[in-house]
Amino acid sequence: MTTTNNQPERFDTLQRLELESTIGFEGGQDDGAIIVWNIETKEPVCGSAAQHKSAGITYCLAASKQDECQFFSGGNGTLRFWQLDIANRKIRATDINTGIVKRIVKCMTVSLDGTILYCGTTSGDILMIYIPANQFKCIGPEKKKYSMGITTIQALINGDVLIGTGEGKIHIAEKETFKSLKSAQAMGEITSIALRGEGHMIFIGTDRSHIYKINYADWKMELINTCHNSPINDIAFPFGTSELFGTCGFQDIRIWHAPTGNELLRISEANKTCNSICFSRDGKMILSGWDDGRIRAFYPETGREMFSINDAHNRGVTAIAITNDCRRIVSGGGEGMIRIWQINPNSRELLATMKEHKNAIVCIRINKSDTECVTASLDGTCIIWNLKRFARNQVLFENTLFHCVAYHPEEYHIVTGGSDRKIGYWESTNGAQIRELEASKSGTINGLDIDNSGNYFVTVSADKLVKFWRYNEGDVISVGIGHGSEVKKVKICPNSQHIISVSADGSIFRWKFPKSTI
Fold this sequence. Notes:
cytoplasm, Methylamine Dehydrogenase, Chain H
């Protein structure tokens, strides 16, 4: 699926025709049109309504194998054959009559000899169309339909059909009856299938952001890549370790191997969202805050739950941190409260509740001596707390919604970012602002991190950019471009070799730390 964010029209399907100079677009629900474009000039050749006014939405396209100027379209109550007339700049449609059979076609493919069109439907069966006569031939299977509909389809060289279903199964269907010959189970709805060579290797994509590989000969499925399929809310590195990092989002926490990008561990909690994650300094615990109001701790080796603090916050745990001695947890909630928890061998004890913030806590940072912490809130304040007296030391006021905060390694400065698109430097002793930098022209500053030397820091924002700064000079020396949506968080690894950024579309980017600064 190809979508555009800058135009009112939405392109739901793109099909490359065999003719080198043209490409077909199918408009979405907004305009319901099929447009043919010239690739070289990037200009439209011609267009037409994708379906009759009485028909439903058109969902898919397929190019002919025999004639480079022919293609097919299908959708809700519509199935059409198209002839492209480049000389007269027109496309002409011929409806394919399926008789009393009424289906919603979601995917289609043409057999390798170019004589048969296979159409996968939401009903879990396949329509077979004889292309030379544009004639409906048959429908199958007769009995056991494919559960949750057919979402993607590919013709194989031996005449069989490879199909993916909404329940996450890959089937090889027999070419005449469409009965399943063999199948494999993936996680999530199958969204795409790609064949390597003549089909000896099959790649499968799912809506859970999984990519699988199947060898046709032995029919063994292997997970080769995966990522989050929803916004990533936080990142954390274990203390002193740059090869591993953790991310969290909807339903799970994942531990990654940074050099290879492989997922090492997944901790799942059904229908819950993890808002914040951190590692204990001794590496024995993964701490996490969830939207159901619980703090959960896990063993990093197995992902098994170590303990859970129920009802830690009544509007969800939105931020969490652990002291360097691994004895106390500092948590922040959606209601604006800061709570301190004592970790005992067999229990967890609430030591204090600090009520100053009026809105959700978004970030917590603890100093090296465990005597102070700073919290950022959406109420427009950052508060420096005394962790011995459990009282406020300083308040930082600004006309913004703070989204991130960090201590300078020397701890004489605090750096903040928020909705005013500016980076603020503050004195940690008296809360006075000493510097302000414009970090973005259009987007909220969602995350920042300072390297261990204190000479550089990195920021991410809603404008999809990752910016690398010199701390003392306050200037940008490198910009990372690549994210396709709002960047949510960023972290510099402990050895300052690479930078990890995560975004709202579930992607994780690993950037090289600029060599000139190492």
